[in-house]
């Protein structure tokens, strides 16, 4: 082989210099992209933080495992984050508060744990809006429950005078020999309510309405179903919040429009007392 000439040595120096420059550029590029984490966003808000803690764009960064930034661009959406611990009604309405509100209740049937289990099926109940909205809804629900069930003492209507069967309702016809008088915390009544509630809960409430007075889980579920299905939730959330509308929805035909009706007064008193207990303004639309 011949000797290396000066020209070839110079060429090698140029190649080496180019490699160094390229490496420096690459390092600067990577540095500019930045490292990131679940708590540290990328310097460029158009980039995503990948599952390997690097910033970039495209599926490799914004797809599966993306930690922050505009994730899911062409990738698999990450699992939703769990709700913040202590958020919603569970942050202020505890078993201690429940016991304090209903000291003389039927404690074998109406328990806090059964209410809590039933409420889990209705994620917006007591969890929507501001904390004040949430507090008003809990106070409104239990203010009406207090009136309907005698402070959670009664699981069924005392001395019903009829079987509450609307024979004109063909969608949910009454079952032979069954009565649809008030049962549960909110005293679910009438065949059409039992039928619609049973359909929603996948329970045979038309054929076996007694479930509401023998199964506490079912009892609380029927009360929450009625509350949510009949827009009591929307009425008390507002704006503005209206406790009066919840009365009208629950028993307006019998109580509303009368001068100083004692039942309405009771409901308003229970509601405002519970609001005071939770430290929230009850609002001004109280009666119906």
Automatic annotation (TrEMBL):
* One Pfam family matching this protein: Chitin_bind_1
The top EC class is hydrolase
Instruction: State the signal peptide span.
Output: 1-32
Tell me where on the tree of life, at the top rank, the source sits.
Eukaryota
- Glycoprotein as a keyword of this entry, yes or no, is no
Keywords associated with the record: Chitin-binding, Disulfide bond, Glycosidase, Hydrolase, Plant defense, Signal
**SMART domains in alphabetical order:** ChtBD1 (SM00270)
Here the disulfide bonds are: 36-49, 42-55, 48-62, 165-174, 256-288
Which residues does the Swiss-Prot or TrEMBL record annotate as the active site?
A: 148
Is the keyword Thylakoid in the record?
no
User: Could you tell me one molecular function GO term of this UniProt entry?
Assistant: endochitinase activity
Domain Chitin-binding type-1, by residue range, is 33-73
Record protein name field? Chitinase
């Amino acid at each position: 082989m011949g000797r290396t000439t000066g020209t070839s040595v110079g060429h090698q120096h140029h190649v080496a210099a180019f490699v160094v420059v390229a490496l420096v550029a690459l390092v600067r590029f990577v540095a500019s992209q930045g490292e990131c984490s679940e708590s540290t966003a990328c310097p460029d808000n158009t980039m995503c933080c990948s599952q390997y803690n690097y910033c970039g764009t495209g599926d490799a960064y914004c797809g599966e495992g993306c930690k922050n930034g505009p994730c899911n661009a062409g990738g698999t959406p990450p699992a939703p984050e769990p709700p913040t611990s202590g958020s919603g009604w569970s942050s202020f309405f505890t078993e201690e508060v429940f016991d304090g509100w209903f000291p003389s209740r039927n404690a074998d049937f109406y328990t806090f744990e059964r209410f809590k289990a039933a409420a889990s099926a209705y994620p917006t109940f007591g969890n929507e809006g501001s904390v004040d909205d949430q507090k008003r809804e809990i106070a409104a629900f239990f203010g009406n429950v207090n009136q309907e069930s005698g402070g959670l003492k009664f699981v069924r209507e005392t001395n019903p005078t009829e079987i509450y069967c609307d024979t004109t309702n063909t969608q949910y016809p009454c079952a032979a020999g069954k009565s649809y008088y008030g049962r549960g915390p909110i005293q679910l009544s009438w065949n059409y309510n039992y039928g619609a509630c049973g359909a929603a809960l996948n329970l045979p409430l038309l054929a076996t309405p007694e479930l509401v007075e023998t199964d506490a889980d079912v009892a609380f579920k029927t009360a929450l179903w009625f509350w949510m299905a009949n827009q009591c939730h929307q009425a008390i959330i507002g704006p503005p919040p209206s406790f009066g509308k919840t009365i009208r929805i629950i028993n307006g035909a019998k109580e509303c429009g009368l001068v100083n009706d004692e039942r309405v007064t009771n409901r308003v008193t229970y509601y405002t007392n519970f609001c005071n207990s939770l430290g929230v303004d009850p609002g001004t639309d109280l009666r119906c």
